[in-house]
Design goal:
There is one protein chain. The protein has a 7-stranded parallel β-sheet, with helices on both faces. By secondary structure, the chain is an alpha/beta fold. Helix content is 46%, strand content 12%. Strand 5, helix 7 and strand 6 form a beta-alpha-beta unit. The protein folds into 3 domains: 194 residues, P-loop containing nucleotide triphosphate hydrolases (Rossmann fold, 3-Layer(aba) Sandwich), CATH 3.40.50; 225 residues, Rossmann fold (3-Layer(aba) Sandwich), CATH 3.40.50.300; 95 residues, ATP-dependent DNA helicase RecQ (Arc Repressor Mutant, subunit A, Orthogonal Bundle), CATH 1.10.10.
Length: 538
């Protein structure tokens, strides 16, 4: 039954490791806590029960951008879903609420901040909710790295509902004490707790410590120029995000800053451009949750050490969610510790403003200082990075992990060579080479063969439409077959062929300059591939 619904609604033939057990518990009516790493497929663990259970499912998430991405993907699959957050106006909110009350909506995403509004509290109690999922549940715990006071209201709203729904909490970064806090603060009733292994074998972890701040920019530039694909660079402040993005642009990389200080419409445009690979790099502050649901991030670089391993692993884990090889690189400077100590000194007032006593604030700060010490140990100790992460999260697989993970700088005995050495020469001798046609391309081809159009596949797979086109072109170039009618029109093909003959070149940039704006690089590549295969007769 579960597999039938998995195929029917999500077009997957089988569950990933650990997913089935979580779905079974929720559908069986059990409160649930699921600790799963970023990229582990936790969204399906609340979306599949949502379509199987009667009534409305509410998903509480702090990431506005992620809401839109997930709702778009659900709608493409024919699942009626919507969201309510600050990005939509009052008229649109009223229309969506009408659909919710009438039963037209199956899944509703809301931000925790909305629960604080008295008008919404009354409305919330009128919804017929059968299942409530709390994403990023570590935000409810003051022992966690990303505490948000609005999460403390969730239990009160659950208790106020006429009928208590099934409640499930999901997080990618919970230590044992945070897990216990989640259960208590959400009022979970004898929950089933699942801990899926935190290990991500496709991620390669590298640390460079004690780099001078000015040299760190040059090292960031060197790394990015020699890694394929797009990625995220995290900094410790908005100012540095802006400065570093400007530096990268001046050195011929397409980069932009992304932080909470930007207007919401600009953040939305940046997210869309990043999804479509119009930027190679997003430079973001670690204080701002990057809710961009992009599966093919090939690298995450931290220009500045995070304040905890929870924060680091959540941010680094945004790399390689498609299962392909990706790099997580931490560039540490001695000044990072001073920066975090400054932040922590300011935290005492914030904590006390939330109603805590001096002693309680001291206890919370002591935990944060301990977390900072663990983060410093991760940077400084010459131990396997992967094993340190698994041990920190109390992962049961830690005891089984080999002493040499063959996927971090310590185990690979990696040393930076010279300024002119590329990341390929640095790392590829230790890492397995990716096959030309990997699993991620084959999954795109499978969906394409089932009749889904490139834009639909992009939304379903959390990838850009240009990336999906690239997958299908690579498949075609390797000898596979594609539905050309979905990829390019006869008129567009004719225009491209005419320009190729006239300018007598196959250089993409020169051809693009001679063609209408709406004809993309991917379509030009496709025509060149057809000519090479002999599928276009001159």
């Amino acid at each position: 039954m579960l597999e039938e619904n998995l195929k029917k609604y999500f077009n997957f033939n089988e569950f990933r490791s650990g997913q089935r057990e979580v779905v079974e518990a929720i559908v069986g009516g059990r409160d649930t806590v699921a600790l799963m790493p970023t990229g582990g497929g936790k969204s399906l663990c609340y979306q599949l029960p949502a379509v199987m259970l009667p009534g409305l499912t509410v998903i509480i998430s702090p990431l506005i951008a992620l809401m839109k991405d997930q709702v778009d993907a659900l709608v493409v699959r024919g699942i009626p879903a919507t969201f309510l957050n600050s990005s939509i106006d009052a008229v649109e909110v009223a229309r969506r609420v009408t659909d919710i009350k009438s039963g037209k909506t199956k899944i509703l995403y809301i931000a925790p901040e909305r629960l604080a509004a008295p008008s919404f509290q009354r409305l919330f109690s009128e919804f017929k909710i059968s299942f409530l999922a709390v994403d990023e549940a570590h935000c409810v715990s003051q022992w966690g790295h990303d505490f948000r006071p609005d999460y403390l209201h969730i239990k009160k709203h659950i208790d106020a509902l006429p009928t208590r729904p099934i409640v499930a909490a999901f997080t990618a970064t919970a230590t044992p004490e945070v897990k216990a806090d989640i259960i208590t603060r959400l009022g979970l009733a004898a929950p089933t707790v699942f801990t899926r292994g935190f290990d991500r074998p496709n991620l390669k972890f590298f640390v460079q410590k004690n780099i001078k701040p000015k040299e760190r920019y040059l090292e960031t530039l060197r790394i990015i120029k020699n890694l394929a694909g797009s990625g995220i660079v995290y900094t410790l402040s908005r100012k540095e995000a802006e400065t570093l993005a400007d530096f990268l642009n001046k050195n011929s990389l397409t980069a932009t800053a992304y932080h909470a200080g930007l207007p919401s419409d600009k953040r939305s445009r940046i997210q869309e451009d990043f999804m479509e690979n119009r930027f190679k790099v997003i430079v973001a502050t670690v204080a701002f949750g990057m809710g961009v649901d992009k599966a093919d991030v090939r690298f995450v670089i931290h220009v500045g050490m995070p304040g905890s391993l929870e924060g680091y692993y959540q941010e680094a884990g945004r790399a390689g969610r498609d299962g392909e090889e990706a790099y997580c690189i931490l560039l540490h400077s001695k000044k990072d510790t001073n920066t975090h100590n400054f932040f922590l000194r300011g935290d005492r007032k914030l904590i006390m403003d939330q109603g805590k006593s001096w002693e309680e604030a001291g206890e919370i700060l002591e935990i944060k200082y301990q977390k900072l010490e663990k983060m410093l140990a991760y940077v400084a100790d010459a131990k396997c990075r992967r094993r340190m992460i698994l041990k920190y999260f109390d992962d049961p697989e830690y005891a089984k992990e080999k002493q040499n993970c063959r996927g971090c700088d310590v185990c690979l005995r990696w040393k930076k060579k010279t300024e002119t050495d590329t990341m390929e020469s640095d790392f590829s001798q230790h890492a397995a080479r990716r096959q030309l046609i990997g699993a991620t391309i084959k999954e795109t081809v499978r969906l394409h063969a089932e009749g889904y159009r490139p834009l639909q596949i992009a939304k379903m797979r959390s990838l850009g439409a240009s990336t999906i086109m690239g997958h299908l072109i690579d498949w075609y170039v390797s000898g596979g077959e594609v539905n050309m009618e979905q990829l390019i029109s006869p008129v567009e093909e004719e225009k491209i062929v005419e320009v190729i003959k006239r300018v007598r070149t196959q250089r993409l940039k020169l051809l693009k300059e001679e063609l209408p704006e709406e004809i993309s690089y991917e379509k030009i590549r496709l025509v060149l591939a057809k000519m090479k295969r002999g599928d276009i007769f001159e």
